[in-house]
């Protein structure tokens, strides 16, 4: 029997805490979206007015350009790029918090479960320990359950099975946090796209004016270039930092869970030329 069907835990024991954390994520995301909507409304209100009315908030939530008459107008393509990056920022924030919750010590190596299994194995109740681990969806629970199933085959088989499950669980967790890495890699590319677009707009204004463009007309394209670069970096830096932090924690806790499982299996080691694991399972 394999444990592949249990590699994707539903974390039933973590549901109450997860609901609270997810609620905070939703509230934070809603507040951030409301702030962004306020910024866009402010920018839209400022459209059609003079350059001096440009607000700080509106500058970061909408791209605006000024014509030769000095009147501000919303530059919609640049604004769309900014809002794509805004949505990616909210997504990255929520994803990082969610992944940090799903890859905590409690879901990989819960101390309480380790203590219970250790107590049972010290009493020689390895079958009871296997039954106890059936309801444990942590990485440690999957490892110890798979190892104890191999008890009739001896210590070497148990250790080999532990190592195999450790690789499977770590690979599955790494795969689940990979979207955070992808987000951190893609966001700067979108920001760079906005940068190139903004510079194209700026140079087009120079061409349209015959080489004597008003600095006010250039400011719109340059502003789009800088703001999209700003948001691209603001999305990428936390996403990549969160990815590195979560990945390192998963690697450390998974390795600790594997070594803890092997330590608990020491009592099954062969002694006196016989396989102690086989003797204990008779």
Describe the structure.
It is a single chain. This protein is an all-alpha fold. It has one domain. Helices cover 74% and strands 2% of the residues. The protein has ten helices and two strands, in the order ααββαααααααα. A two-stranded antiparallel ribbon has the order 1-2. α1 runs antiparallel to α3. The radius of gyration is 28 Å and the shape is rod-shaped. The two termini are 20 Å apart.
- Structural class by SSE content: mainly alpha
The N- to C-terminal Cα distance equals 20 Å
Element order: H for helix, E for strand: HHEEHHHHHHHH
- Helical percent range? over 70%
Major β-sheet strand ordering:
1-2
Task: Give the tally of structural domains.
Answer: 1
Estimated radius of gyration: 28 Å
Low-confidence stretches: 1-23, 37-54, 273-282
Mean pLDDT across every amino acid position: 76
Q: What coarse outline follows from CA principal-axis ratios?
A: rod-shaped
Largest sheet: 2 strands, antiparallel
Strand content: under 5%
Number of strand elements:
2
Helix count equals 10
Overview in brief:
This protein is an all-alpha fold and 282 residues long.
Keywords:
74% helix, disordered C terminus, 282 residues, two-stranded antiparallel ribbon, single chain, 10 helices
SSE arrangement:
Blueprint (H helix, E strand, L loop, with lengths): L14 H32 L9 H6 L2 E3 L5 E3 L1 H27 L2 H4 L2 H12 L3 H8 L5 H11 L5 H54 L6 H50 L11 H5 L2
Antiparallel strand pairs: 1-2
Helix pairs in contact: 1-3, 3-8, 3-9, 5-6, 6-7, 7-8, 7-9, 8-9
């Amino acid at each position: 029997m394999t444990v592949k069907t249990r590699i994707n835990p539903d974390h039933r024991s973590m549901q109450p805490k997860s609901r609270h954390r997810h609620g905070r994520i939703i509230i934070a995301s809603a507040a951030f979206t409301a702030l962004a909507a306020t910024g866009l409304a402010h920018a839209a209100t400022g459209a059609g007015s003079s350059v001096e009315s440009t607000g700080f908030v509106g500058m970061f939530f909408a791209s605006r350009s000024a014509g030769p008459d000095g009147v501000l107008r919303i530059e919609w393509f640049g604004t769309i790029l900014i809002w794509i990056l805004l949505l990616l920022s909210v997504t990255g924030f929520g994803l990082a918090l969610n992944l940090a919750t799903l890859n905590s010590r409690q879901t990989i190596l819960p101390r309480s479960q380790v203590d219970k299994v250790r107590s049972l194995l010290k009493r020689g109740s390895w079958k009871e320990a296997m039954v106890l681990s059936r309801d444990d969806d942590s990485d440690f629970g999957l490892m110890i359950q798979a190892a104890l199933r191999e008890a009739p085959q001896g210590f070497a088989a148990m250790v080999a099975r532990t190592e195999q499950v450790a690789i499977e669980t770590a690979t599955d967790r790494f795969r689940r946090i990979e979207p955070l890495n992808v987000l951190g890699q893609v966001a700067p590319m979108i920001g760079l796209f906005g940068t190139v677009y903004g510079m194209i707009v700026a140079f087009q204004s120079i061409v349209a004016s015959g080489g004597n463009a008003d600095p006010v007309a250039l400011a719109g394209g340059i502003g789009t270039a800088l703001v999209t670069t700003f948001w691209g970096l603001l999305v990428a830096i936390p996403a990549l930092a969160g990815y590195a932090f979560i990945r390192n924690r998963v690697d450390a806790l998974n390795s600790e869970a594997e070594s803890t499982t092997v330590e608990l299996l020491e009592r099954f080691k062969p002694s006196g030329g016989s396989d102690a694991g086989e003797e204990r399972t008779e």
